[in-house]
Amino acid sequence: MTDKVKAHLDLLIERYPRLEVCREDIATAYELMAKCFEHDGKLLIAGNGGSAADAEHIAGELMKRFRVPRPVTPEFAEKLTAVDPVRGADLAKNLERGLMAIPLVAHEALSTAYINDVDGLGVFAQQLFGFGRPGDVFLGISTSGNSRNVMSAAVVAKAMGIKVIGLTGADGGELAKAADAVVRVPETETYRIQELHLPVYHCWCMMLEEKMFAD
């Protein structure tokens, strides 16, 4: 971890001192994601309720700029303008490089079809099985650590050679036992857990962006 990347983690702990107990786990989870993206992998994210919203939020921060500009490469800009001098020039100016992140909560037609036809608790597992490849990372968000549909996806991930990160409350639940890295924020009530999840994943997004795109 470079000094610039570490500075984001240091600032997180400075702003939220209670997360000091999670420092090492936050760093470990970051390293898993960084290795995944370095090898052109993707992050698959799932959660329920507020954690489903967090899954969408994380994908939004990773798939376009968060704080650091992410212009396309000059080589790709040339290819765009070669295809269409007018549209290509606009695209070359406006497209932003992304870190591939798929929220498994976002595909309503697929999700509802699987829930209706097969199994409601397997909806994340089915998507992970379809989207996932060895070398990817699955981020399961569960305040209790015991969300059954998240745990089903974690089992599929492990079977596929996909690393599992858990983002939970203080107990960690079953997810903590299954995960390759788990961040157990020091709260036990759902809304308070969620209040600490957001700065943790914002920090991850900044760390990853710093590594992959900052000069």
CATH homologous superfamily annotation of the largest domain: Glucose-6-phosphate isomerase like protein, domain 1
Average pLDDT level: 96
Distance between the ends: 15 Å
The level 1 CATH classification of the largest domain is Alpha Beta
Number of helices: 10
Question: What is the ordering of alpha helices and beta strands?
Answer: HHEHHHEHHEHEHEH
Integer-rounded radius of gyration: 18 Å
Sheet/helix structural class: alpha/beta
Portion in helices: 55-70%
Say how many strands there are: 5
Strand order of the largest sheet: 2-1-3-4-5
What is the general shape?
globular
- Do you know the CATH architecture of the largest domain? 3-Layer(aba) Sandwich
**What is CATH's topology name of the largest domain?**
Rossmann fold
Q: What is the strand content? A: 5-15%
Question: What is the subunit arrangement here?
Answer: single chain
Instruction: Summarize the main sheet.
Output: 5 strands, parallel
Number of domains: 2
Uncertain segments: none
Overview of the structural elements:
The protein has 215 residues and is an alpha/beta fold. It has two domains: 177 residues, Rossmann fold (3-Layer(aba) Sandwich), CATH 3.40.50.10490; 29 residues, no CATH class. Helices cover 58% and strands 10% of the residues. The protein contains ten helices and five strands, in the order ααβαααβααβαβαβα. Strands 2-1-3-4-5 form a five-stranded parallel β-sheet, sandwiched between helices. Helix 4 runs antiparallel to helix 5. The protein is globular.
